[in-house]
Amino acid sequence: MATPRVFIVRHGETEWSLNGRHTGTTELPLTANGEKRIRATGQALVGEDRLIVPSQLAHIYVSPRKRAQKTFELLNLGCRDKLPWQEQPQSGKEQHVRTDAKVQVTDDIREWDYGDYEGLTSAKIREQRNQSGEGPWDIWRDGCPGGEYVD
Protein backbone atom coordinates (compact mmCIF):
# COMPACT_ATOMS: atom_id res chain seq x y z
CA MET A 1 0.00 0.00 0.00
CA ALA A 2 1.30 3.44 -0.91
CA THR A 3 2.06 5.94 1.83
CA PRO A 4 -0.77 8.47 2.13
CA ARG A 5 0.16 11.99 1.08
CA VAL A 6 -1.42 15.40 1.55
CA PHE A 7 -1.18 18.23 -0.96
CA ILE A 8 -1.96 21.81 0.00
CA VAL A 9 -2.55 24.30 -2.80
CA ARG A 10 -3.01 27.99 -2.06
CA HIS A 11 -5.40 30.01 -4.18
CA GLY A 12 -4.07 31.91 -7.17
CA GLU A 13 -3.13 35.55 -7.30
CA THR A 14 -5.73 38.25 -6.53
CA GLU A 15 -5.41 42.03 -6.68
CA TRP A 16 -4.95 42.13 -2.92
CA SER A 17 -2.31 39.41 -2.83
CA LEU A 18 -0.43 41.39 -5.48
CA ASN A 19 -0.15 44.43 -3.23
CA GLY A 20 0.19 42.63 0.09
CA ARG A 21 -3.26 43.30 1.50
CA HIS A 22 -4.54 40.69 3.97
CA THR A 23 -7.45 38.79 2.46
CA GLY A 24 -9.65 36.52 4.52
CA THR A 25 -13.41 36.83 4.17
CA THR A 26 -13.51 39.29 1.27
CA GLU A 27 -14.44 37.56 -1.97
CA LEU A 28 -11.96 38.59 -4.65
CA PRO A 29 -11.57 36.99 -8.07
CA LEU A 30 -8.29 35.67 -9.34
CA THR A 31 -6.39 37.98 -11.66
CA ALA A 32 -5.90 36.92 -15.28
CA ASN A 33 -2.27 36.23 -14.41
CA GLY A 34 -3.38 34.24 -11.35
CA GLU A 35 -5.59 32.05 -13.53
CA LYS A 36 -2.80 31.57 -16.06
CA ARG A 37 -0.32 30.57 -13.36
CA ILE A 38 -2.73 28.09 -11.76
CA ARG A 39 -3.39 26.45 -15.14
CA ALA A 40 0.38 26.14 -15.62
CA THR A 41 0.73 24.70 -12.11
CA GLY A 42 -1.94 22.11 -12.91
CA GLN A 43 -0.18 21.11 -16.12
CA ALA A 44 3.14 20.80 -14.28
CA LEU A 45 1.93 18.96 -11.18
CA VAL A 46 -1.20 16.99 -12.13
CA GLY A 47 -1.18 13.82 -14.22
CA GLU A 48 -0.58 10.09 -14.08
CA ASP A 49 3.19 10.71 -14.33
CA ARG A 50 3.26 13.80 -12.08
CA LEU A 51 3.40 14.65 -8.40
CA ILE A 52 -0.40 14.70 -8.03
CA VAL A 53 -1.88 11.57 -9.60
CA PRO A 54 -5.64 12.16 -9.88
CA SER A 55 -6.53 8.44 -9.96
CA GLN A 56 -4.86 8.03 -6.55
CA LEU A 57 -6.70 10.88 -4.83
CA ALA A 58 -9.16 9.78 -2.14
CA HIS A 59 -10.66 13.01 -0.81
CA ILE A 60 -10.33 16.69 -1.64
CA TYR A 61 -11.09 19.56 0.75
CA VAL A 62 -11.70 23.04 -0.61
CA SER A 63 -12.20 26.36 1.15
CA PRO A 64 -15.61 28.04 0.82
CA ARG A 65 -13.90 31.10 -0.73
CA LYS A 66 -14.66 31.52 -4.43
CA ARG A 67 -10.98 32.19 -5.24
CA ALA A 68 -10.04 28.80 -3.76
CA GLN A 69 -12.82 27.06 -5.66
CA LYS A 70 -11.79 28.71 -8.93
CA THR A 71 -8.19 27.69 -8.25
CA PHE A 72 -9.32 24.11 -7.75
CA GLU A 73 -11.29 24.14 -11.03
CA LEU A 74 -8.28 25.49 -12.94
CA LEU A 75 -6.04 22.66 -11.70
CA ASN A 76 -8.16 20.42 -13.94
CA LEU A 77 -8.15 17.27 -11.83
CA GLY A 78 -11.03 15.77 -13.80
CA CYS A 79 -13.49 14.96 -11.02
CA ARG A 80 -16.28 12.53 -11.88
CA ASP A 81 -18.94 14.24 -9.75
CA LYS A 82 -20.11 17.82 -10.14
CA LEU A 83 -18.35 20.16 -7.77
CA PRO A 84 -20.35 21.12 -4.65
CA TRP A 85 -20.47 24.81 -5.60
CA GLN A 86 -21.71 24.19 -9.13
CA GLU A 87 -25.40 24.09 -10.07
CA GLN A 88 -24.64 21.65 -12.90
CA PRO A 89 -21.57 19.90 -14.23
CA GLN A 90 -19.51 22.06 -16.56
CA SER A 91 -21.30 22.15 -19.88
CA GLY A 92 -19.98 22.75 -23.34
CA LYS A 93 -16.82 20.74 -22.87
CA GLU A 94 -16.19 17.06 -22.61
CA GLN A 95 -14.74 16.52 -19.15
CA HIS A 96 -12.08 13.84 -19.03
CA VAL A 97 -12.66 11.96 -15.75
CA ARG A 98 -9.38 11.32 -13.99
CA THR A 99 -10.50 10.92 -10.37
CA ASP A 100 -13.36 9.53 -8.32
CA ALA A 101 -12.23 11.53 -5.27
CA LYS A 102 -15.00 13.26 -3.37
CA VAL A 103 -14.74 17.04 -3.11
CA GLN A 104 -15.88 18.64 0.13
CA VAL A 105 -16.14 22.34 0.91
CA THR A 106 -15.18 22.95 4.53
CA ASP A 107 -14.63 25.94 6.79
CA ASP A 108 -11.87 23.93 8.46
CA ILE A 109 -9.42 25.10 5.78
CA ARG A 110 -10.86 28.51 5.02
CA GLU A 111 -8.71 31.58 5.03
CA TRP A 112 -7.91 33.42 8.25
CA ASP A 113 -10.46 36.03 9.39
CA TYR A 114 -8.49 39.26 9.59
CA GLY A 115 -11.42 41.20 11.07
CA ASP A 116 -10.55 44.90 11.31
CA TYR A 117 -7.28 44.21 9.48
CA GLU A 118 -9.04 42.84 6.38
CA GLY A 119 -7.74 44.60 3.28
CA LEU A 120 -4.83 46.26 5.07
CA THR A 121 -1.13 45.65 4.48
CA SER A 122 1.10 44.56 7.36
CA ALA A 123 2.82 47.98 7.17
CA LYS A 124 -0.55 49.76 7.62
CA ILE A 125 -1.44 47.50 10.55
CA ARG A 126 1.90 48.23 12.22
CA GLU A 127 1.37 51.96 11.63
CA GLN A 128 -2.12 51.86 13.19
CA ARG A 129 -0.87 49.85 16.16
CA ASN A 130 2.04 52.22 16.67
CA GLN A 131 -0.30 55.24 16.64
CA SER A 132 -2.54 53.61 19.26
CA GLY A 133 0.41 52.53 21.43
CA GLU A 134 -0.19 48.82 20.92
CA GLY A 135 3.34 47.98 19.79
CA PRO A 136 4.51 45.62 17.04
CA TRP A 137 2.02 43.20 15.52
CA ASP A 138 2.51 39.45 15.56
CA ILE A 139 -0.54 37.67 14.17
CA TRP A 140 0.19 34.54 16.23
CA ARG A 141 0.47 36.48 19.48
CA ASP A 142 -1.97 39.34 18.85
CA GLY A 143 -4.53 37.93 16.45
CA CYS A 144 -6.88 40.34 14.70
CA PRO A 145 -9.42 42.59 16.41
CA GLY A 146 -12.88 41.75 15.14
CA GLY A 147 -11.41 38.57 13.62
CA GLU A 148 -9.49 35.51 14.71
CA TYR A 149 -7.00 34.86 17.45
CA VAL A 150 -4.86 31.80 17.97
CA ASP A 151 -6.41 29.66 20.70
Order of helices and strands: HHEHEHH
Task: Please state the average pLDDT score.
Answer: 93
Task: Tell me how many strands there are.
Answer: 2
**Whole-Å distance between the termini?**
37 Å
Poorly predicted runs of 5 or more residues: none
Biggest β-sheet strands, sense, barrel: 2 strands, parallel
For the biggest β-sheet, the strand order reads: 1-2
Question: Using only CA atoms, what is the Rg?
Answer: 18 Å
User: Count of helical segments?
Assistant: 5
Concise synopsis of the structure shown:
The protein has helices at residues 15-18, 32-45, 66-75, 122-131, 139-142; strands at 59-62, 102-105.
Question: Describe it for me?
Answer:
- This protein has 151 residues and is mainly alpha-helical.
- Helices cover 28% and strands 5% of the residues.
- Helix 2 (32-45) packs across helix 3 (66-75).
- The mean pLDDT is 93.
